[in-house]
Amino acid sequence: MKKIILILLCIFATVTITAQKDKRLNGIEKELNTLLKTSKASGFAVAIVEGNKVVYAKGFGYRDCENKLPVDTNTLFAIGSTTKAFTSAILGKLRASKKLSFDDNPRKYIPKLEFYNNNIISKAS
């Protein structure tokens, strides 16, 4: 267990040091703190990924205001139904680049997809 904690601390330190050296991120914390104040959010976390590498990760504000527990890079947030908006946006971009059509049966892209009522699929085909 101690080894895992040590490894996680090393990863966090590396990410933090890398972010501090990346000149593209100069002033990002000031901007994010301003966003925290103007949005009146209790807290949020930010991660910036380039390729397959996290170049910046930090929490801002509180995950529990009453107990003054800060947001960190491991804080879990309830995101509600926002995944629907992300999915719609991605589908729209794929349609715009002609990589899919809204008229196609979803099984064309996900062959193992099953619906409760197969009659719906036969009508959509």
Strand content: 15-25%
Counted beta strands: 3
Report on the biggest sheet.
3 strands, antiparallel
Structural class: alpha+beta
Q: How large, in whole angstroms, is the Cα Rg? A: 21 Å
Low-confidence stretches: none
Q: Report the average pLDDT across residues.
A: 82
Strand order of the largest sheet: 1-2-3
Give the termini separation.
Answer: 53 Å
Order of helices and strands: HHEEEHH
Helical coverage, percent range: 40-55%
Shape: elongated
State the helix count: 4
Polypeptide structure, described:
- By secondary structure, the protein is an alpha+beta fold.
- Helices cover 43% and strands 18% of the residues.
- The protein has a 3-stranded antiparallel β-sheet with strand order 1-2-3.
- β2 (53-64) and β3 (69-70) form a beta hairpin.
Describe the structure using short key phrases.
3 strands; 125 residues; 4 helices; elongated
Could you give the topology of this structure?
Blueprint: H1 2-21, H2 28-39, E1 43-50, E2 53-64, E3 69-70, H3 82-96, H4 118-124
Antiparallel strand pairs: 1-2, 2-3
What's the quick description here?
43% of the residues lie in helices and 18% in strands. The protein is an alpha+beta fold.
